[in-house]
Known about the structure:
The structure holds 3 protein chains of 3 kinds.
Chain A: H1 2-17, H2 20-42, H3 45-58, H4 63-69, E1 77-79, E2 84-86, H5 118-121, H6 124-127, H7 136-141, H8 157-160, H9 172-183, H10 186-189, H11 212-215, H12 218-226, H13 228-231, H14 244-257, H15 268-274, H16 279-288, E3 296-298, E4 304-306, H17 316-319, H18 322-330, H19 332-335, H20 348-359, H21 377-389, H22 432-441, H23 459-470, H24 474-478, H25 497-505, H26 508-511, E5 513-514, E6 517-518, H27 528-531, H28 534-542, H29 562-575, H30 593-606, H31 631-634, H32 637-645, H33 647-650, H34 663-674, H35 680-685
Antiparallel strand pairs in A: 1-2, 3-4, 5-6
Helix pairs in contact in A: 9-23, 12-14, 14-21, 15-18, 15-20, 16-20, 18-20, 22-23, 25-29, 28-29, 30-34, 32-34
Chain B: H1 2-14, H2 16-21, H3 30-38, E1 49-51, H4 57-60, H5 63-82, H6 91-101, H7 106-134, H8 142-164, H9 169-182, H10 189-197, H11 204-235, H12 252-261
Chain C: E1 40-42, H1 43-68, H2 93-101, H3 104-121, H4 126-130, H5 139-159, H6 163-180, H7 189-195, H8 199-220
Helix pairs in contact in C: 2-3, 2-8, 5-6, 6-7, 6-8
Amino acid sequence: MNSLKAKIVASWKAVVRDPIIPFGVVSLLLLIALAIAPLKDHFSEWRNYQHQYVRMIRTRGDAVTLQRHFQGGIRQIWLPKLGVVDRCQTCHAGLDEASLSDVSTQPFAAHPVIPHHLDEFGCVVCHRGQGAATTVAEAHHSKMAGEQPILPARYIESSCGQCHHSTLEGTPKLNQGRTLLTGYGCVSCHTIKLADGTTMTATDQPPPLTHIADKTTREWIYAWLKDPASYSTTATMPNFNLSDADARDISAFLIADSEPLSGDTAMTPAVASNSAADPAAGASLYGESFCASCHAMQNAAGNVVGGNLGPELSGIGSKVNAGWLQSWLRDPRHYDPGTQMPQYRWTDQQLQLLTGYLQSKTNSDFLANVHLAAATPAQIAHGKALVSEYGCASCHQIRGIRKPDNFAPELSRVGSKPLEQLVFLDGMQHSLPDYLSEKVRRPRAFGTNLHMPVYAFTPAQLEAVTTALLSLTDRSFTLPPQLQVPSPRISNYQPAGHAGQLMTNMNCLSCHRIHGRGGDMAPDLTWEGSAVQHQWLDAFLKNPNTLRPSLIRRMPKFNLSDSDRAELTDYMMTVYQTPAFERDSMPLTGYAPAEVEQGRQLFYSKYGCQACHIVNAQQDKGYIGPVLTQVGSRLTAAWIYQWLKNPQALRPGTTEPNQNMSDDDARALTAFLITQKTSLKQEAKQ
Amino acid sequence: MAGKIDDYIAKLERTRVWRSVFRSGTGSSTLHRALAIQQNVFLHLFSTKVRRRMLGFKATWYLGTLTLGTFLILVITGILLMLYYRPAVPQAYADVKDLQFVVSSGLFLRNLHRWAAHTMVLLAFAHLFRVFYRGAYRPPREFNWVIGIVLLMVTLLLSYTGYLLPWDQLAYWAITVGSNISATVPVIGEKVRFLMLGGHQVNANALLRFYVLHCVILPLAAVLFIAVHFWRIRKDGGLYVRQSEPIREPAKEDESAVLEKV
Amino acid sequence: MTEPKDFIAGIGSDIKKSQKRVLFVTRRTSAQVRVFDEERVQTYPEALFRAALAIELLTIALVLISLFFNAPLEGLADPTNTPNPAKAPWYFLGLQEMLHYFPPVVAGVLIPMVLVVALVVIPYFNVNIEADGLFLKNRHRRLNIFYAGAIGLSLFLWFFHVYVALIPTLVIAAIMLVAAFSSPTSSQPLRRYLAAKPVSWWVMTWFLLELIVLTVVGTFFRGPGWSWVLPWRS
Lengths: 686, 262, 234
């Protein structure tokens, strides 16, 4: 025992005295330590996934093909112009294999079919994440500056919006979100510049408040400020969560600030005497004028029915002053030069009927508990301060207060906001989509001194808005310009002359688009002069009847005088002609019956047009496209022919498919269609 | 087996080529070993004999030696890292990412370089304080102490210039903070920063400048001063000994025992 | 007839003759050439192999650290996005901490320059070389200077709210006070030890303590806006 101890001591002493042996041992250890790094490399995550993939494809029917496609090692998509180095396919080995579409275990599933090829755009342009990484955690969850974690699939449409700046088929959520951003006034306070050089503009047209006292009462303003949604569920005005005192003072200021407008209240006595007029007559005038195309109203069953272009009218009687309403209906532009409401040419009697009818639509609950004492100057002054503080003038025109510039933070690149710049609430997921969604849902939770109002969005709307915001990325600005699909140029087309004045009055451009300007709710009228026959247009303007039975929105009846109507018709027939072809290059009559019959065959069998269109009212069931029973009286033959040849050339974006028809087929179909001339009278009888 | 290898080595050492490289000969006598030090351009910086009592851990804690060790690691890993790195914006960052994700053992190389750099700064400071507390700055070692301070500065500059090279947020803002300080020097501050960064901001020019400093100028300066530092140890009479430290009488038999083994 | 060769072929020349050491003993260096008959070992192999051993052990340690701890790498540099706080490398955090209290010229230029100069001049002052106990000679005058210096520095730091640097200063001053009232012949070893310490020792120890405290504070206890944070709470 002792000898052993002595031996150990002796050998230890030898080791200490002589450094060469420990040097040898330690050198060996060092070599071993250095060998660990390559070993660690060899057993990396991605190699493991590739082994799994190889094992998986071995069991499949098309193993040979898959094995031939598979390449080991690190695979990457390198696109210098996009700043993309994506090594995702190192692990996601089967992305390009259509036959793996049934595989659900990641990372081996095939990519769903999309309009772009993977090699053109890589992965991170759409999915975010860190493309260069070769470990699961770094690739998917890295939150470092300049990198975003993987985008949750429900927001994936936002990535399309980085290049596609206008409405895109196939991205309904993104489109909806963008419509909400512009339609709910978000972009009135927040500047949003797009990568194509345009700036998003508000489409909600909030009313000016310069003459508000003519229109409504202080009590209504108070109640509305407190909770716009309780007046109308479709209100685009958000809730600012104002205290009673603040709402009192703002309403006091707005009334005190209002300047009377000549003519608004002049009619009050006459209306008062006519309010007992036949309510049914008012209702039917409301219906005949197609007011419901734009305005919603609660019907007898309690459902809110109608369009959402104008405000809901269910409680209009509690809101507006009768004299103002009548003056408004007579000439909306007198009160609000920027309104989308068309000017109808109603007679005084019709005006009174309609005013009386609308005044009967009251919402008594809304004002039930509002009792305001007369405003004091201090309250008015405080109200003015509040109006500035909350940026009311960002949306509304208010006397004495300028529209503030950049009232709220710019959001042009909010979709790339680094996480470390965000302040999260307790219990929130630390991710950008969650932050944006929560910020829109309950903005005041992020700080008591914040002024952002609350919008009553549904969860689906919230998701859509978040998607639209997420599309506003840094990357969007750095992508090559040739990839940008710009939003249509905003045109400032203005029809000229007296006819142009008429069109402005009737706000044709609220619904129709002409030369790139105007709404998209009704047909584009740019080439209307080439498309329709003079006689038909004149008759249609006199008494519009719907062409598309499935649409809710309909052309209103404007009661134009004969001379105005004739002028407008002539103007449109002359000015709105396409240079692409001559309107009268094909005759309206005189087609051989054989040709007509051939066209009928083509219509019903070869091209199956009856799927969308109706030629024979008794037998066809197509409701998607316009009814064609009287197309021969409506359209010119040349237009029909050119339309059949290439619809998109005449109206970009139309849903009519391009069938690549031969000239003969198009001619025969034109001959068939031009003979469809059920007269207007006959139609009325049916 | 071992004997055979020894034979081969002995044969190798007798060859003409070997002798032309290593002049010291093959023996293990005191003369041969002294020649091994004297006749090697690197080792001749050291004296041929050192005090046995200075070999213990207690005297020096081997801090100078270890600092040299980290420097050697940094040179080797640094040269390997240079193979994968381009000092340009934004390639620099991508290259560092590639080191992390696709270069074999790239992450390990970078880690080793980074941790060795931190260790070197720490060891240089420790060396400084250790030398001070031992009083080893005393004459005739004054100038070697000054060279030591210069080497500490070079070490800090090496570490600082290297800090920018990954071109990440950490690097960018650390250098921005540092360069802003230099701009506060009265009168010449702005010029100093301009010279340092090659511009008024930390940008691609600064990256290139720091790269050249980090990979060429400062390492050369470090090598030069390290050589002088070591050479001065020999010229100043070996490592500093305290008067209080016990002198050990030579033990002849001990030494011969070691020699026999070698 | 061939010319005689102008060179000698082979190594048989006097190359291997060992040089003789010639020593010039001057009055200045005479102290250092006192010959100790002490044990010396050969640099090769004794010292070289030990050095190599030490370096190898360090390398193994660093290799193991590098295998398991990744060097920090943050996102791509972004001049528009300032991290809060933006920290310098750790060895400059002491200076950055000073930057928090003093104008940049003082903290960023003056202090480091004074430091470097102070370090450089240490071996050129006889007081540092002789290294007598601070309070042994001229006791009264030195005590007065110490009081004035310590109180002045403390007030200065107090005035600029540099409490981080004030506390180590007070600690050192307190220990110096103990040293001032200790005799080199005291029965307590600690007091003997302190009493023998020279001025450079005290200054350097103060500097070391400040360096450690400031660096640790800057590294671990400073957060957004250079405010106090606790490292284990984040």
